[in-house]
Amino acid sequence: MSAKRPPFVVAAVQMRSGDDVERNLAAADRLAAEAARRGARMIAFPENAAYLRAEGTGRPPAGAMGGAIVSRFAAMARRHDAWVLLGSMAEAVPHSRKVFNTSLLLTPRGEVAAVYRKMHLFDVAIAGKARFRESRVVRAGDRTATAATPLGLFGLSICYDLRFPELYRHLALAGAQVLFVPSAFTAYTGRAHWTALLRARAIENLAWVVAPAQWGEHHEGRRSYGHTCVIDPWGRVVAQRPSGTGVVLARIDPSVSDRLRTGLPALSHVREELFAPGR
Asked: Which domains does the chain have, with CATH numbers?
């Protein structure tokens, strides 16, 4: 069992980002200030917070770890003395025209505590409903990411990862008490699957799930589901915002996860040989 940590307030931010980077960053600054005023010690932004391109357009403008976008969110963390999750940004890949879809966890000093590059890319073709090919411009990451913080042990993921329970099981077995799922889930798939999948990931891993989301129409033909929410380790939705730009606040007690894992020790019953059948 991990060291006991006191409860803290998390703010999951819901945005409707577009292709105007400065406008998106200004909105992020305003929402972070609101979250901090309301007592948040952890502020989590959705996928593509700084720039959300229209599907079919060229490569998104890519930044570096020390670039302007990261610097803006690092300054935000310092200004509010809060942990900040830059849900994701396009990170330049050396010697490639592709980018990583990268999530960064920043300390209250503005330092990078963890980096996660999206492992599962959203390549789908649902006739008449959703057609995306993320792999056309994005390179998949190849490693998981956890971060031991004074608030708890965090596990990172991004959007489409949500459909792959083995990733979250890996994070939980590494001790993660809080799982972050910054997303831009499509409106069509979100209506059927978003909350169900989030609750499943919380229940099966007895972990908190924090899911900041994009919402509404970003460009013609691209609409996100919204429904930013926080789910407790028993699978209950404790806070939610169906639509509109704003923040969702919830009190997270990491010890709840530890206590439930002791009483219902499902993680200790995992048959890890089933992760890779036939090997």
From this structure: 8-272 (3.60.110.10)
- CA angle 207–90–197, rounded 5-degree value: 30
Among 47, 55, 91, 134, the active-site one is 47
pLDDT in tens, 213-239: 999 999 777 899 999 999 999 999 999
Instruction: Report the predicted TM-score, pTM, of the whole model to 2 decimal places.
Output: 0.94
- pLDDT category at 145 given cuts 50, 70, 90 is very high
Query: Closest Cα partner for 183 from 197, 172, 173, 169?
Result: 197
Residue 189 carries which DSSP code? H
Q: Which residue has the tokens 């899911």?
A: 211
Return the beta strands (E) in 130-262 as ranges: 130-133, 146-149, 152-156, 178-180, 208-211, 215-219, 222-225, 228-231, 237-241, 246-252
Residue 118 designated active-site: yes
Catalytic, out of 55, 134, 159, 229:
159
Exactly one of 55, 91, 118, 229 is catalytic; which is it? 118
Please classify residue 21 by burial: count the beta carbons closer than 10 Å to its beta carbon, then call 0-12 exposed, 13-18 middle and 19+ buried.
middle
